[in-house]
Write a structure and sequence with these properties.
This protein is α/β, with parallel strands linked by helices and 385 residues long. The protein has 11 helices and 16 strands. The chain folds into 2 domains: 140 residues, 3-Layer(aba) Sandwich (Rossmann fold); 174 residues, Dihydrodipicolinate Reductase, domain 2 (2-Layer Sandwich), CATH 3.30.360.10. Helices cover 31% and strands 22% of the residues. The strands form 2 sheets. A 10-stranded mixed beta sheet has the order 1-16-9-10-11-8-12-13-14-15. A 6-stranded parallel beta sheet has the order 4-3-2-5-6-7, sandwiched between helices. Helix 3 links the parallel strand 2 and strand 3. The longest helix is centred in the last third of the chain and has 20 residues. Bound molecules: nicotinamide-adenine-dinucleotide. The site of nicotinamide-adenine-dinucleotide has 18 residues, from helix 3. Nicotinamide-adenine-dinucleotide (NAD) binds next to helix 3.
Length: 385
């Protein structure tokens, strides 16, 4: 990565809302993300198995029984068609007991972090889903791959490019698939945003504005610990804006400028940023002005193209996503994103096809996140390799 430019001195809000257009003329690359909107918006119509395979459901083991596993993934696994909750990995015996009863999990499918590697001898577990603090994704993904299990890693895939590369290499070496928990690739409004941008329904995308954040009130959270989280809201919430910009334009950005926001709660934000704004430049000249904060409840994506616009708000939540275009409201269903995501990944494994949300996409995003931090630290424009 190379620094070559200075960041203009905008206020945080100006930086996102008011950036001027600097449009290039390069042609938009081939669409690479939008796919299967029709199928995904009609869950229950899946017809991809025949004969014996029609009965096969893959067993998922959740690693880390925190908030996301407890309140989203485990309930979603009661609705999935291609996979089910087969096992758990937890360091807390009381949780193991509760989950065992609630989800009817046999003792042989319950592991601790110490016994985790024995999962290799358990044919009931096909997929290990790593739902631990960000810095732990690499270790558990690699151990799962070594145990011969397919892996889903939560986002961000890793806290360093080197870790993300090691995760991909381990999964390749052990011939297992690696996916990232990018649930919005299975959400109808976000899929429509991809389609509008990548298929150039309103012409080329010129600008994107997107923010994602929430008010962090849990001072003891690992999300505020640099070592475990890898960073602050950028790693946790801003990654959705990086994703949103990339899948709306259908390209990978080539350069970034960025600026850390003011710290108004220094005791809470003594390790990670409180907020950060950044701007991505795409090969086709499109610009995405993005922001992420642990001090503001915000979630939207706005795209302007040559002949129209579209807007999602909230854009990135588990539900309640709404969208409109310059022609009117999007009439799209609310879905169980996590169920569709896990079903979609399980389907790709069962059919031996590429994942829609592969490790390579997670690696690309970690590279962008690291470039954003470098740009914010140095005040210079950073090229994304
Ligand atoms: P959480 O704090 O609620 O749960 C973390 C789990 O990790 C707990 O069970 C905890 O006991 C366990 N753990 C093991 N070792 C730990 C350690 N050293 N320090 C702290 N916890 C430890 O977090 P969460 O909200 O469930 O997030 C877990 C992962 O899921 C994160 O990577 C996060 O980014 C991701 N996530 C993704 C989404 C999504 O929409 N895709 C939503 C929420 C969280």
């Amino acid at each position: 990565m190379k620094n070559d430019d200075h960041l203009p001195g905008h206020s945080r809000r100006d930086f996102i809302k008011g950036f001027s257009l600097l449009l290039g003329s390069a042609a938009l690359g081939a669409p690479y993300l939008a796919q299967g909107l029709d199928r995904l918006t009609r869950p229950g119509e899946h017809q991809f198995f025949s004969g014996d395979r029609a009965k096969k459901k893959l067993g998922i083991a959740l690693v880390g029984l925190g908030s996301y596993s407890t309140h989203q993934l485990a309930p979603a696994l009661a609705e999935t068609e291609n996979c089910y909750l087969a096992g758990i990995v937890t360091g807390t015996p009381a949780k193991a007991e509760t989950w065992k009863k609630k989800y009817n999990i046999p003792d042989k499918n319950i592991y601790t972090y110490k016994t985790f590697d024995q999962i290799k001898d358990n044919p009931a577990i096909d997929i290990v889903y790593v739902v631990l603090p960000n810095a732990m994704h690499a270790e558990y993904t690699i151990r799962a791959a070594q145990a011969g299990k397919h892996v889903i890693s939560e986002k961000p895939m890793a806290t360093s490019v080197a870790d993300a590369e090691r995760m991909i290499a381990a999964c390749k070496a052990h011939q297992v698939s690696l996916s990232v928990g990018y649930r919005l690739h299975y959400e109808p409004h976000n899929l429509r945003a991809m389609e509008l941008g990548q298929k150039q329904v309103y012409g080329k995308v010129k600008t994107i504005k997107t923010e994602n954040g929430f008010v962090m009130n849990n001072a003891g959270s690992w999300r505020l610990n640099k070592e475990l989280a890898g960073g602050g809201p950028l790693m946790d919430m801003g990654i959705y804006c990086v994703q949103g910009a990339c899948y709306t334009v259908g390209q990978t950005p080539v350069a970034v400028t960025a600026k850390f926001g003011e710290v108004t709660r220094p005791r809470v934000f003594d390790e990670v940023e409180q907020s950060i704004d950044w701007q991505l430049e795409f090969p086709n000249g499109a610009l995405a002005s993005c922001g992420s904060s642990y001090n503001e409840n915000v979630s939207y994506l706005h795209a302007e193209a040559e002949k129209g616009w579209w807007h999602l708000e909230p854009a990135y939540g588990y539900g309640g996503i709404t969208g409109k275009t310059s022609e009117g409201p999007m009439h799209l269903p609310q879905v169980n994103q996590q169920a569709l995501q896990m079903d979609g990944i399980a389907q790709s494994i069962l059919e031996n096809k590429a994942s829609r949300v592969p490790g390579e996409m997670g690696l690309r995003d970690v590279k962008i996140l690291m470039a954003i931090y470098e740009a914010a630290r140095t005040g210079k424009k950073v090229r994304i390799a």
